[in-house]
């Protein structure tokens, strides 16, 4: 579907997210001629700047995040010319007049308001847009996470934004859903007959979903200290990946068909009790260590940190889904900062061989597994047992791999580019619906409440490791272990 003419308004247009992700994604669209010639980008900020001054700031802040080989002088100058800057205070209704003057008055024009701002501003901005007559039927609003701190605040955001925009105009963004490998999960499951008969409790032993980061909190301490790993990663990214793995086949790939099935998964997650929480949830906080051979400080010694902070930088959870397909299959979720490697992957491990016809005992055979690597290299790996060359019948594990870069020579689209294109097309499939968001918060809220009452601090773990030993014990009680060996380089 072609993208029609639009005005894109970036609230927080001079911020870190815009510089690192949004503007590079827009440039890639501009470079590939994927957006109309007349489309405009309006950056909103509180500081007084001319258009030229803002364009120069884009040149300084966003250009380093774009591959140098993709930038040519004429192309880059044409991209910068799309930007206009509007100085205004998002809290002050009167200043929206300046924005109104900058927007084109065309009933057929798509208007996108991208709120790369703290969630405390979502309702204010939306109400001011409505009061200024800017929230037209052709308008769309994009909400960046965090979408609330808990169930109550998430419901409040949904209600307040929903008073201005209807559900088909609201795009709650989770950039993990824009990753090529995540969408390939849909293709893998529902575009092939091979795995679907095995995609159930009779054949699958467990599922592991890991998002590990080597980096610390960087310049996000103000946000992270009030968020932590659970709100920042598990409530959104990890649960969305779980939904893609566990959902039933939707009737079509239309937005509500897909999101209906994801909602069923979230509502089927077994609810925690105080007893099961203590057994099935681990929270940790990194201490000083070495990452990539470089000494790094503890979280509590990072700039701006509370020396007595109880904020978790690591969380591991054993989740269960009470459905006919998944009953009894554990889903292990973990995420953390300052870990041993930078990776995001889903591991679907199949059950062990019931009997060996070879001289090797069945216990020596590695269970088959399917590894979906999301980053740093996107691809699929299928682990099988195969005969070693030579005399005799000795089996060993082998890895069948699919590297998306090698299989498809066309350049891969970055997550934010894909999602921005879907916003501009009005395609909602890869965005969360309000009931989906609330169901996710409903499931994690008992964890937050338990931690608030728990006098124990997060378990310390050394930076550059795979997290607290308690996370290994969590999965070890089921006779399993986290997959931590490196995949072959692709």
From TrEMBL:
Pfam family, one: G6PD_C
The UniProt record lists the keyword NADP: yes
Location of the Glucose-6-phosphate dehydrogenase NAD-binding domain: 9-184
SUPFAM superfamilies the record matches: Glyceraldehyde-3-phosphate dehydrogenase-like, C-terminal domain (SSF55347), NAD(P)-binding Rossmann-fold domains (SSF51735)
Tagged with keyword Iron-sulfur: no
Enzyme class: oxidoreductase
Domain Glucose-6-phosphate dehydrogenase C-terminal: from-to ranges: 186-483
Catalytic activity: D-glucose 6-phosphate + NADP(+) = 6-phospho-D-glucono-1,5-lactone + NADPH + H(+)
Entry binding sites for substrate: 175, 179, 213, 232, 337
Residues bound to NADP(+): 46, 145
Catalytic residues of the enzyme: 237
Source taxon at top rank: Bacteria
TM regions (residue ranges): none
Functional pathway: Carbohydrate degradation; pentose phosphate pathway; D-ribulose 5-phosphate from D-glucose 6-phosphate (oxidative stage): step 1/3
Signal peptide location: none
Key words, A-Z: Carbohydrate metabolism, Glucose metabolism, NADP, Oxidoreductase
Function: Catalyzes the oxidation of glucose 6-phosphate to 6-phosphogluconolactone.
Similarity comment: family membership: Belongs to the glucose-6-phosphate dehydrogenase family.
Name of the protein: Glucose-6-phosphate 1-dehydrogenase
């Amino acid at each position: 579907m072609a993208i029609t003419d639009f005005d894109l308004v970036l609230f927080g247009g001079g911020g870190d997210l815009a510089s690192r992700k949004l503007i590079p994604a827009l440039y890639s669209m501009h470079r590939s001629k994927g957006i109309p010639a007349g489309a405009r980008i309006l950056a909103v900020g509180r500081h007084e700047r001319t258009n030229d001054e803002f364009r120069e700031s884009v040149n300084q802040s966003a250009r380093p995040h774009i591959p140098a080989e993709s930038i040519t002088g004429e192309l880059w100058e044409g991209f910068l010319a799309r930007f206009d800057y509007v100085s205004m205070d998002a809290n002050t209704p009167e200043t929206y007049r300046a924005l109104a003057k900058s927007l084109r008055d065309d009933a057929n024009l798509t208007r996108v308001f991208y709120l790369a701002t703290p969630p405390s501003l979502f309702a204010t901005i939306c109400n001011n847009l409505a009061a200024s007559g800017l929230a037209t039927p052709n308008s769309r609003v994009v909400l960046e996470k965090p979408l609330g701190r808990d169930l109550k605040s998430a419901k409040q955001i949904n209600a307040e934004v929903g008073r201005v925009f209807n559900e088909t105009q609201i795009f709650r963004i989770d950039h993990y859903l824009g990753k090529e490998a995540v969408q390939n999960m849909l293709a893998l499951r529902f575009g092939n007959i091979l795995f679907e008969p095995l995609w159930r409790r009779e054949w699958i032993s467990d599922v592991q979903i890991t998002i590990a980061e080597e980096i610390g909190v960087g310049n996000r301490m103000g946000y992270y200290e009030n968020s932590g790993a659970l709100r920042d990663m598990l409530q959104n990214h990890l649960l969305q990946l779980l939904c893609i793995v566990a959902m039933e086949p939707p009737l079509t790939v239309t937005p509500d068909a897909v999101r209906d099935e994801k909602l069923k998964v979230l509502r089927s997650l077994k609810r925690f009790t105080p007893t099961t929480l203590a057994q099935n949830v681990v929270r940790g906080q990194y201490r000083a260590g070495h990452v990539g051979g470089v000494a790094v400080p503890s979280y509590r010694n990072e700039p701006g940190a509370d020396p007595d902070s109880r904020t978790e930088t690591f969380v591991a959870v054993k989740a269960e889904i009470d459905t006919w397909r998944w009953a009894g299959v554990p889903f292990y979720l973990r995420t953390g900062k300052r870990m041993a490697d930078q990776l995001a992957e889903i591991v679907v491990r199949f059950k062990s061989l019931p009997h060996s016809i070879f001289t090797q005992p069945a216990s020596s055979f590695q269970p088959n597994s399917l590894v979906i690597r999301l980053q740093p290299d996107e691809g699929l790996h299928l682990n099988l047992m195969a005969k070693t060359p030579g005399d005799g019948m000795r089996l060993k594990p082998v890895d069948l791999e699919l590297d998306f870069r090698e299989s498809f020579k066309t350049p891969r689209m970055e997550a934010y580019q894909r999602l921005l294109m879907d916003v501009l097309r009005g395609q909602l499939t890869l965005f969360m619906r309000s009931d989906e968001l609330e169901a996710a918060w409903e499931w994690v809220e008992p964890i937050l409440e338990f931690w608030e009452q728990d006098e124990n601090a997060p378990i310390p773990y050394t930076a550059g490791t795979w997290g607290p030993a308690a996370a290994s014990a969590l999965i070890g009680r089921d006779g399993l272990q986290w997959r931590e060996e490196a995949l072959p380089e692709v």
